[in-house]
Amino acid sequence: MRSADRPVSLADERVRRTYELGRKAHPQVDLSFEEFARRARAAIPKHDNKDFYLAVACDAGAPGAWERLQSRFHRPLRAMLRRRGATRHDVSQLLDDVWGRLASPPPRAKARTRIGTYDGQGALLAWLATVAWHRLADGWRRAAGVAPLPQEPTPSTPRGGDPADRLEASEIGALIGSVLEQAWASLTDRELEVVVLKYRQLLPQTEIARILRVSPSRITRLLQSATRRLREAVEERLELRAHVAGAASNQAALQHLLQRMLSESDAGREDADDHGRGMA
Amino acid sequence: MNQPTPDEQLLEQLVRAAGTRVDPNALAVAATEKRTHGIVRDPEAVLLLRTLARERGRRRRTLWGGAALAAMLVAGLIFAFAQGPRGEAPLAERLETAVAGLRLHDAERFGSFALADDLDATSGVTRTGVAWLAPRGALLAAPARLRWRRPDGVSRVQVKLKGPGVAWERDVDGDDVQAPPLESGRYVVTLRVLGSLTPQTLRRSFVIADAQQRHAYAQAQAVWRAETSADLHDLIEAHYAFSQGFLERALEASRRAEAARGEKRQLVLPLLRYLTR
């Protein structure tokens, strides 16, 4: 409740606006302003986001909130998962599992449920799509007998350490980032899909062929063309910037940069573990 | 086993350099603001961003395509009425016409209602693990029993049910158990196989409709009973309940339609197979 002698801050105004937007978009979900403000004040979206109200209402267990969440996002998520290779049968079971999982407590965050770890800074559909994709990929890994991935996301920026090291790391990180950005952008959807399933999800090629409903030889050809495109994209960039790493050849420069990047992300991961973040 | 080539090693290192798992909040920001925050160095993030963009494009196209289809359907109906009465059309055609008529009659309730016609239940995968059978989806009333299928060689399972004001747990020998009294709301059920060498746990959720949702369903039912011929009621209910997520209700109506045999049975079989797969 506002008191007469306390000025209304910009943050208060944003909480109020986000609440009103959410109420208007989801009139069937009833959550009081006080309850919303108490839960949302720590991470109020910087931009208008009418679905943040819905996520907070789900976390608070407001009547009708979970039903609204499902009715609003079930179809686009189903279509997204189908596009990524899930069968109709898998999608139906997977989404049941995702809703159940979102309603359960997260491992390490303060939120009451996993959906409470949504920070509202981006679209809720994209957030849900990422969570659903993780579940789909985890299922494929389980079925193929591959060890599960760690639950924590990879931190994007290193923390701590010497300022000069941080500066160099950020320069190298920026260079690697721009090289990788161009490299991945040069791949077709199918090639990207095969690369992710093979090198991120560590699935065997026969399993990838089954998921994508193509022959194993087609997977081999897709990997070959992906490798060729990546090499071309990486070499094109490193010819311009090889001097940054002080190495003689593009291959050596790339190896050097990758080693730095890997050690940097390992350090960042340990740092993130110390901070104990939560994730859906 | 073949040794990886230098190019394959490079590819592997590039993926490894990107990290291990996409942060959902970072990806949501990237998808919304078109600012990538370095997330595009991760091929998995690039793949998800592309998928979301393609899906947005498809939905826009579907919206415009749907509007054009509706206009053509209305024109077709006007033309059909202008031609005057004819002999009895096939059931499938009458069902399509009845659904289109419901959409025109009550756009608020049936505006998005369409027959489920792209069902594929022929994957032929025989699953031998633990499976949850009922209840599934949304229910109009509290379920009497909870049902599942045990894996071969396992006799005992643990069932946990959590929901509004309910935290219920039982160890059960068999494939079903009487459900506790449940109010409207969302319930998460966890099924754990006991005494198996490999741990198997399954989590599913279902929803019991509140009074408002039950009322809305009853009103929709009253509309199709009043506006369509009696031989179509089971088919319409099966498809309508399915479109609204009332899977158990859709199953009951599908079984009634199947029992009628003939053309009606043929029409409902794909949906029935999908619901019982």
How does this model look, in words?
- The complex is a heterodimer of chains A (280) and B (277).
- With 280 residues, chain A is mostly helical.
- Chain A has two domains: 10-143, no CATH class; 163-275, Up-down Bundle (Butyryl-CoA Dehydrogenase, subunit A, domain 3), CATH 1.20.140.
- Chain A is built from eleven helices and no strands.
- The longest helix of chain A has 26 residues, at 216-241.
- Chain A is globular and about 60 Å long.
- Residues 154-160, 242-247 and 268-279 of chain A have low confidence and may be disordered.
- The model of chain B has no long low-confidence stretch (mean pLDDT 82).
- Chain B has nine helices and eight strands.
- In chain B, helix 7 (233-243) runs antiparallel to helix 8 (247-259).
- Chain B has a five-stranded mixed sheet. In chain B, strands 1-3-6 form a three-stranded antiparallel sheet, with no helix packed on it.
- The two termini of chain B are 39 Å apart.
- The radius of gyration of chain B is 25 Å and the shape is globular.
- The longest helix of chain B has 40 residues, at 43-82.
- The chains are: A mainly alpha (280), B alpha+beta (277).
- Chains A and B meet through helix 4, helix 5, helix 6, helix 7 and helix 8 of A and helix 1, helix 2, helix 3, strand 7 and strand 8 of B.
